[in-house]
Amino acid sequence: MPDPKTTGFQDIRDEVIERIQTRVWPQGSLLPTEVELAAEFGVARATVNRALRELADQGIVTRKRKGGTRVVTTPVKQAKLPIAVVRQTIEEMNATYRYALVSRTLMDCPPWLQAKLGLAERAQVLHLNCMHHADNRPFQFEERWIVVDTVPHVVDEGFLTVGPNEWLLAEVPFSDAEIAFSAVPAAGSLQEFLAVPTGTPLFQMERTTWFRERPVTFVRMTFHQGYQMRTTY
Asked: Which CATH architecture has domain 4-71?
C-alpha cells in the first residue's frame, strides 16, 4: 500500500487497479466511498476523486451520482497511443533520419501557456523549434516549451544533435499526458518548414505531460502533408 505521507492520485489509481486485477474488487463490485478511501490512504477526498475520474476515463470503473463507483463488468477497450521517438518512427519506415535545431530560447513563460499549465508569473521555460526529416524530406515541425522548474537541467542541454522529444523520454519521467488533434492550414513558418503551398491542410498534435501534477512540457507537432496516425486497442 502507498505511504500516506507521499501518496498522490497516481498511487491511489495504481492501487485500485491492483485490487481489481487481484479480484479484491472483482468485476461489478462497488468500491468504498471517496470518504472511506481518503481515510484509508490518508489523503484529501479531491485526490481520491481525481484517481477515480481517471479510471472512469479509462473505462475501468463507472461512476454514478449517489450510486458510487463500480468496477465495470466488461472493461471498455481503450486505444493505445504511445509517445514515440520520432527518430525511431522514421527509421522504422526504412528512411534516413535527420534532425535540425531551428531555435533555442530561454524565456519567461508566455501568458497563454502560463494559464494552461498553471505556472507562476515569470516562470521560466525553454522554447525550442526543431525540424525532423525523413530521407531529406520534411517530416515534422516541432515547437516545444519545457518547464525549467520541473526540469532544471534542461538549461544545460543544447539540443544540437538530439531532439527534445528523444531527450525528454530518456531523461524525464512523466505520469500523465493530455493530447489534442487538429487540422491546420499551412501558413507562415509551417508552410516554409514543411515545404507545402499556402493553405495546405496539415495534421497537428498538441501534447502536455506532467510528472506528479507538475507540468513538464507542452509541444505542438505539425506533420507533413498526407500524414496518418495509427493506433491499436
From this structure: Orthogonal Bundle (1.10)
Phi, psi of 163 (to 5 degrees): -75, 155
Domain boundaries, the chain: 4-71, 86-223
For 217-229, how does the pLDDT look when each residue is reduced to its tens digit (9 = 90+)? 999 999 999 998 8
Pairing type for strands 68-71 and 201-211 reads: unpaired
Phi first, then psi, for residue 52 (nearest 5°) are -70, -35
Measured in whole angstroms, how far is the alpha carbon of residue 123 from the centre of its chain?
A: 20
Q: 3-class secondary structure for the chain? A: CCCHHHCCHHHHHHHHHHHHHCCCCCCCCECCCHHHHHHHHCCCHHHHHHHHHHHHHCCCEEEECCCEEEECCCCCCCCECCCCCHHHHHHCCCCCEEEEEEEEEEEECCHHHHHHHCCCCCCEEEEEEEEEEECCEEEEEEEEEEECCCCHHHHHCCCCCCCHHHHHHHHCCCCEEEEEEEEEECCHHHHHHHCCCCCCEEEEEEEEEEECCEEEEEEEEEECCCCCCCCEC
**pTM of the entire structure?**
0.68
The CATH class given to the 86-223 domain equals alpha beta
Backbone angles phi, psi at 135, to 5 degrees: 50, 45
- The three cell numbers locating residue 175: 505520469
- Summarize pLDDT for 191-213 with one digit per residue, the tens: 999 999 999 999 999 999 998 78
Q: What angle do CA 182, 187, 190 make, to 5 degrees?
A: 75
